[in-house]
Amino acid sequence: REYYFLPNFTLLAIVTCWVGFKGYLQKEREVVNFKLNLKKEKIEEVEKDEAFLNTLKQVMEQEKPYLNQDLNLNMLADYLEMKPKQLSSKINQNCDQNFYDLINSYRVEALKQRLQSDDWAKLSLLGHAYECGFHSKSTFNHVFKKTTQLTPSQYLKHVQKTSE
Predict the structure, then answer these.
(1) SS3 category, 116
(2) Radius of gyration of the chain from Cα atoms?
(3) Residue 130: burial class (beta carbons within 10 Å; 0-12, 13-18, 19+)
(4) pLDDT tens digits, residue range 98-141?
(5) How far apart are CA 112 and CA 152, in angstroms?
(6) Among 20, 29, 42, 117, which lies 20 to 30 A Cα-Cα from 6?
(7) Residue 92's CB: how many other CB atoms inside 10 A?
(8) How far apart are CA 155 and CA 143, in angstroms?
């Protein structure tokens, strides 16, 4: 009886290993093909939606919604008369950054302009940051350093040196 079961179990183990190995190889081929397709898609340049970019730029420069500390995707979508998911997708595709990075880049540029004006000394750096739409000191410092590779105080010193 033991001699009858042993060959069957050995054969069953071999078949199971063979099926598993074939499945593993198939999965690996699919992963490699998927990665190759992703690279091809990235190489093919996606056309930018110029109408959207112009509308977004116009709203950001004229309405300046980024100065509002409570600005969120829904509010900007209302400005642009779009659905929030559609706006988020268009920002990601056309601006190569997410919503918060886009808004913070406008805020940093507004702060840079304020610091280069003649009446910058009326407020502290943090006061200017709040006026430009930043909600907290830590966010302001992190975003400013990420964008300019300088801390806000280093940037202010640099601006003062170049203006002399």
Answers:
(1) helix
(2) 28
(3) middle
(4) 999 999 999 999 999 998 888 788 889 899 999 999 999 999 99
(5) 9
(6) 20
(7) 14
(8) 13
